Amino acid sequence: MSGKVYLVGAGPGDPELLTLKAHKLLISADVVLYDRLIDEEIIALIPDTAEKMYVGKAKSLHSLPQNEINSLLAKKAKEGKNVVRLKGGDPFIFGRGGEEIEELVEEGVSFEVIPGVTAAAGCAAYAGIPLTHRDYAQSVRFLTGHLKDGTTELPWEELVHPAQTLVIYMGLTGLTEISASLQRFGMSESMPVAIVEKGTTKQQRVFASDISHVAQLAIDNEVKSPALLIIGEVVLLQKTLSWFNQ
């Protein structure tokens, strides 16, 4: 009898942001493949009877190549096991979730996708930054600052737009280039920017600056990944609306 794969979003860090469905699947799993940024309190929920497999990725350092993870999911399910693939944030927002279940479809393996709170929503909320606001931003764009080919080549001209919030995942390494490119395509050097480091966790730090000084701010404060960039006028509200870790 064939098992099933559950692609589960673990949220951005705070264990209490795990959904009820994610929790139910996690405590009944036969096998759990989990990523690097999963909180230890969430890992602790996995039963001792389950096989735990770490398949995390840091920059240029993968414990297991992506194609091997894909194959392993199919293999374990075909052994009749209920497999949880536990991913930080939401599996379909810069989480390679689509790549993983493409192979499951090819292999004829049953699966479900359980959404999680994505970093943009979670980190912005815990930093006190509304991503949209009637006075400041009527749209928001989620972007990755680290493309598959290792570059940060983004559609810069489209990104310099009034009343828009930009949220950039994995943008810390290319922050200098991102800052320079946005200004080159017309973004004001005074555009507010926030960096949220380890958002929603007890180690969260928030730094607010402007697009012309944010790269140096990150260096001066030794900001480390995971960190999210939020660019837009909504960042002006951060000091007033900040509530977490006060």
Offer a concise description of the structure.
By secondary structure, the chain is of the alpha/beta class.
Based on helices, strands and strand pairing, what is the structural class?
Answer: alpha/beta
What percentage of amino acids are in beta strands? Answer: 15-25%
> What is the mean predicted local confidence, pLDDT?
94
Shape, principal axes of CA atoms = elongated
Strand order of the largest sheet: 3-2-6-1-7
Record field, number of beta strands: 12
The poorly predicted ranges are: none
What is the helix tally?
Answer: 9
Task: Note the gap between the termini.
Answer: 52 Å
What's the order of the H and E elements?
Answer: EHEHEEEHEHEHEHEHEEHEH
Q: Helical proportion?
A: 25-40%
Radius of gyration: 19 Å
- Largest sheet report: 5 strands, parallel
Layout of SSEs?
Elements (H helix, E strand, L loop, with lengths): L3 E6 L10 H7 L4 E4 L5 H4 L7 E4 L2 E2 L2 E2 L3 H13 L3 E6 L9 H11 L2 E5 L4 H9 L11 E6 L11 H4 L4 E6 L5 H10 L7 E6 L7 E6 L3 H7 L6 E5 L6 H4 L5
Parallel strand pairs: 1-6, 1-7, 2-3, 2-6, 8-9
Antiparallel strand pairs: 4-5, 9-12, 10-11, 10-12
